[in-house]
């Protein structure tokens, strides 16, 4: 299938289609990971986006059910230089192309994805259209103009019902803004009793569950699109130990009066350097975000910056001076290292332990 990638600035790329036959529109972003393409496309945080992979060979080890981060793909499309149709791996169950076709996702291959990345780095993220149908460039331009940019992506990806995962350890409520499966796995590995709730669950409903701690998950879009959640978290942080990841980190900072902003092209990949100030140690992290916390907005708050990005000095982590509340912008569940950042989940467990010990005294 011949295919076209049309960018909002008028740039046109021509290649070959794979996955679903169709046309799709979304925000064009790039990811610098060399592996993990299955986890990337199934990450709910990519809702509404078209992912451009900088690594040239994608699909070479196939896909399998075990590595999915969610039950479906919320990304709108995938751009690669070379798509492998003959994967080789003992865990392989199907090709990436067949998975995309099954999940109704349009892909395009045969493009210089690094030149696309340079374009995004210079101009910033922008809308784009992929088609492998018989459409003109003029028709694709109309697709972009008519596309809806006011979608609440958190509402789209969040669980619609409360569900429970039994464990013998601490009772944790996970607020699902688009939670990756590996966040749940990390909590399960620590024997937590987990209740996953929709993003708009009320404070009162959460307290009825009587958790020992609350986790704010990753998720897509602008944290300012969920003001009702920010209001709920304002009450949660005063009542329970709280740990936020990615969007959860941004929401937590808004909770304490901080501000967020949209980055020029964001951080997406498995190789971003982050400095842990309190540990005096640098880590390679997994990241996927297009918004960041404005550091000057939290300087006069009861928050301490704990992590900074080594590429651009953006805020990568905070903790409250008094309350057992902390968060990170990167993804400790993304297996960088592969367990270098796992200490953050242990820190969450310790914060709940400390509260229990104080109550016992």
Radius of gyration, CA atoms, in whole angstroms: 20 Å
CATH topology of the largest domain: Rossmann fold
Which stretches of 5+ consecutive residues score pLDDT under 50? none
Q: Order of strands side by side in the largest beta sheet?
A: 10-12-11-13-14-19-18-17-15-16
Please bin the fraction of helical residues: 25-40%
SS field, number of helical segments: 10
Calculate the mean pLDDT score and round it. Answer: 96
CATH H-tier superfamily of the largest domain: Class I glutamine amidotransferase (GATase) domain
CATH level 1 name of the largest domain: Alpha Beta
Strand content: 25-35%
Q: Give the biggest beta sheet.
A: 10 strands, mixed
Q: What is the total domain count?
A: 2
Could you state the order of secondary-structure elements as H and E? EEEHEEEEHEHEHHEEHEHEHEHEEEEEH
Coarse structural class: alpha/beta
Distance between the termini: 69 Å
Structure summary, number of beta strands = 19
Shape: globular
CATH architecture of the largest domain: 3-Layer(aba) Sandwich
